[in-house]
From TrEMBL, chain A:
The chain crosses the membrane at residues 21-43, 63-84, 96-117, 129-149, 161-182, 202-223. It comes from SAR86 cluster bacterium. It is found in: Cell inner membrane; Membrane. Belongs to the CcmC/CycZ/HelC family. GO terms for cellular component: plasma membrane. This is Heme exporter protein C. It comes from the Bacteria. Residues 19-184 form the Cytochrome c assembly protein domain.
Automatic annotation (TrEMBL), chain B:
Belongs to the CcmD/CycX/HelD family. The chain crosses the membrane at residues 16-36. The keyword Transport applies. This is Heme exporter protein D. The keyword Transmembrane applies. Its main location: membrane.
Length: 254, 75
């Protein structure tokens, strides 16, 4: 197990394995997203109260879930970096911030747009909306803090601490709909019965979009992490080989 | 099973077109950004390294030239 742990923390190993994994992940993601989006947008029945507007939920729910998962992942990486000084963990944490920020922005935007006809307002200081907005600011703050340091090592350390302090906000987002009785609805229960309010033909496509978006999230993290590896390991022999190989090909995209 | 009867009905989204399609448009923007930006950064980085290498080579050549000239004048 420790050998696996050691391997995982090797930038060269990560770069090689992620490069091999990428085409499979990209194919799977495209398939899942394609099926899920077409199904959810065009082939599911309308909601009896929200009409066609509920179709926004197919992207709103998974993007919010992935944004929160992204923060947890960033926090785990920050902890691994602070405890074991694993540089690879810091590189992944650095990649998480912009991706998590965009997913949080997506969740907020889609929710707002959905809220205009449904709630009659695009924004309200509801517990869940507010805590999600705080998460957006935390992602931005983490990026700003890192860029404020000239020293990479000092910036990584400070960013990791801020990330861990901010992680308290994520369970608040999760439980906000239970703890406070404000506007945002709770999680829908999924029923296998066709006569239920939330039958399988509504939520099955949501799982396709959800797993597709999860695959997309991994791709986005991997792309950024690979760039970071090339940047930080530029003085090593194996990166030099990759660079010279891309030079002879003209462009390096693989 | 539900769904739409025609393509124009699909586009109209039962009167919610502006909400549904703007949400999905932003979704596409976020997806494209998350792929395009790291790919562009990678391209830029490779170009930068390539140029740096060229500059180093030119410097080395110029240095070699100077050394050759001084060697010529002393011998």
């Amino acid at each position: 197990m420790w050998q696996w742990f050691f391997k995982l923390s090797s930038p060269k190993w990560f770069y090689t394995i992620s490069g091999q994994l990428m085409p499979w992940l990209a194919t799977l993601t495209t398939l899942l997203l394609g099926v899920g989006l077409v199904w959810g947008l065009a082939f599911t029945p309308p909601d009896y109260q929200m009409g066609e507007n509920y179709r926004i939920a197919y992207i709103h729910v998974p993007s919010a879930a992935i944004a929160m998962g992204c923060y947890y992942m960033m926090a785990c990486m920050a902890a691994a970096f602070l405890i074991w000084r694993i540089k690879m963990a810091d590189m992944i944490a650095k990649a998480c911030a912009p991706v998590g920020m965009t997913f949080t922005a997506l969740a907020l935007f889609t929710g707002s747009v959905w809220g205009i006809p449904t709630w009659g307002t695009w924004w309200i200081w509801d517990a869940r909306l507010t805590s999600t907005l705080i998460m957006l600011f935390l992602f931005i703050g983490v990026m700003a803090l890192r860029s404020a340091y000239d020293s990479e090592a000092a910036g990584a350390k400070a960013t990791a601490v801020l990330t861990l302090v901010g992680v308290v906000n994520v369970p608040i987002i999760t439980y906000s709909v239970k703890w406070w009785n404000t506007l945002h609805q709770g999680a829908s229960s999924l029923s296998l019965s066709n006569t239920a309010a939330n039958p399988p033909q509504i939520w099955v496509p949501a799982f396709f979009v959800g797993f597709g978006l999860l695959g997309f999230y991994l791709i986005a993290i991997i792309l950024r992490t690979r760039n970071e590896i090339l940047m930080r390991e530029r003085r090593t022999e194996w990166v030099d080989e990759i660079l010279s190989a891309s030079k002879s090909k003209g462009q390096g995209l693989s | 099973m539900g769904g739409f009867n025609s393509f124009s009905e699909f586009l109209a989204m039962g009167g919610y077109a502006i909400y549904v399609w703007s949400a999905y448009a932003f979704f596409v923007v976020i997806l494209v950004f998350n792929i395009w930006q790291p790919m562009l950064a990678r391209k830029k980085y490779f170009k930068l390294l390539l140029r740096r290498e060229q500059v180093q080579q030119e410097r080395a050549q110029a240095k070699q030239k100077r050394e050759d000239m001084t060697n010529d004048s002393t011998s």
